[in-house]
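Q: Entry one of two.
A:
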Amino acid sequence: MNVLRSTGWFIQYLFVRFAIFLYGLIPASKAYSLGFGLGRFTYPLFRKRRRIAMDNILQAKITSDQDEADRIARHSFAHFAGHICESMKVPLVVTAENWREHVVLEGDKADGWDLLMEQTDTPMILLTGHHGAWEAAVTIIPFTRPMLTIARTLNNPIVERFLKAKHFRGNITVIPKSQGFTSGFIKLWLEQKGALTIVMDQHAGARHGVRVDFLGRPAYTHTSPARIHLATGMPIVVGAILRDGLFKYRMIAEPPIRFTPTGDKDKDIEALLAEMNTRLGNLIRRYPEQYLWSHNRWR
C-alpha cells in the first residue's frame, strides 16, 4: 500500500513539474490576462461558486442589483485566476532592488505601511484577506523584513516540498496549519522582529472562533490574532495589496491597532476581532471586484 501511495505521489509530482515547465514558457506579461480570460470563460460552469459569490455580495449590500452582483462576482472570479497566474511570475519581475518601482504605498507616515515596510525593528502582526494580490505579498514583504505565516499543507509531501521551494522564497518561515501558533513559533517571530502574516477571512467554526460581524453578518472568526496581540502587545496592521496593473501594486494599510486590555479577556478578544473585521470589511467595500466572494465565509 505504501509503495502504491508513494508511486502515486511521484506521478503527481511529475505532472506538477511538467505543468509548471509549460507555464514557464508563457511570457510574464501575459500571465494575468491569460488567467483572467480563463476565469471569465469558466465562471458560468462553477454554478455553486457563482451562487455563493452573488449571495455574499448581495448580503453584504455591496449592491442590491442582481445583474451588478453577477458582474462583480464574474470579475472577482476572473481576477482570482489572473492573480494566481501572475503571482507565479512575480519573483521573475519584482526584486529586492526594484520593488519600489512596482509598489505604491498609499497613505502617510502615520499609516500601517510605515510600520510594516520601514520600522522593521518592531515585530508586528499583519492581517489581510483573500483580497487584491495577496499572493504577491509573499514575494514583496520579505524584501523589507522577515515574514512568518501559517499555511495548509498538501497530502502529497513531494509536491509540498517542491511548491514550498518554488513559491515561498526569501526570508519566509511557513508552519503547517495543523501545527498552529506554538510557543516556539511565537518566540522565533519576536526574535526575528518579523511580520506575522495571517489571512483572517476564513471560516473558523464554533470550536476555534468567535461570532463577530463581518460585512454585515455574524461570522465565526479565528481568535489567534487577538490572543497573540493580548499576550505580546505587538501592534496589528490590517491591510491589503491591490493590483493596479501589470506587476503594479498598491499597498493600503490601516493605522496600527494597539489595544489596551480591560481585564476581561473574552470581551477584549471579541472587541479586537470586531475591530479587525470592520477594518478588513471597509477595505473590501472599497475594492469589491478584487475580493474572493466565492469563498464560503458565512456557514
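Q: Entry two of two.
A:
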Amino acid sequence: MLKPETANAFENFCAEARKHGFEPKIESGYRSFDRQLLIWNEKVLGKRKVLDKNGKPLDIASLSETELMKTILLWSALPGTSRHEWGTDLDVIDSAAAPEGYEAELTIEESYGLFGKFHEWLSENSFGFRRVFLPGIGRVQPEPWHLSYVPEARKIEQSFTAENLAERLGNSQVLLLPQILDNLDWILKEHVLCYFEK
C-alpha cells in the first residue's frame, strides 16, 4: 500500500543496501486512519502499553485525560497525523542482522545495537529517504528506524490543514476528542508541523 514512487525508491534503496551486506525489511509501512484510530483508542483504554519518554510502560490510572493524551503522543501519532497514512513512510530494520525468529521491537537500543551497522550506513545513504523523528525536533521520541520518502511526502505536507484534521477527528470515534481539540494548535506545532520540510 506504499505509493508506487515510494515503493520503487525503496526497491532501489534495498538493491544498494544488499551490496553492503544489509537486507532491509519493512516492519511497518502503510497504516490506515482506522488502524491508527484503533491503536490510539486501545492506548487510551489501557489495552496497549503507554510508554514514558524513556520507553518504559506507565500506569495510566494516575494520569489526567490531558496528561494521557500528551503521553500517548510521545510514541503514537494522533489519527489523521500519522505519516504512515500517507504511503510514503516506513519503519525499516536490517533483517540480515536479526537472529532467526527474532521479533523486532523498534527501540533505540536495538537501532544502535543489533542494527547499529545498518543505521551507520543509512546515515550516509538516503536515496531520497530521510529520518523524520530526530532528537531536538518536536516532541515525538526519536525513531531512527522511521524513514520518509521526501519527494512524495513533501506533496502531502503541502496539502495538510488543521481544518481538515479537526473535521476528520470530529467525524470519528477517537477517544479524548475534547482534550485533543482543546490542544490542537499545540499538537500540530509540537507533533506534526515541526517535521514538515520547510
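A: Comment on entry two: The radius of gyration is 17 Å. The CA atoms of residues 13 and 126 lie 8 Å apart.
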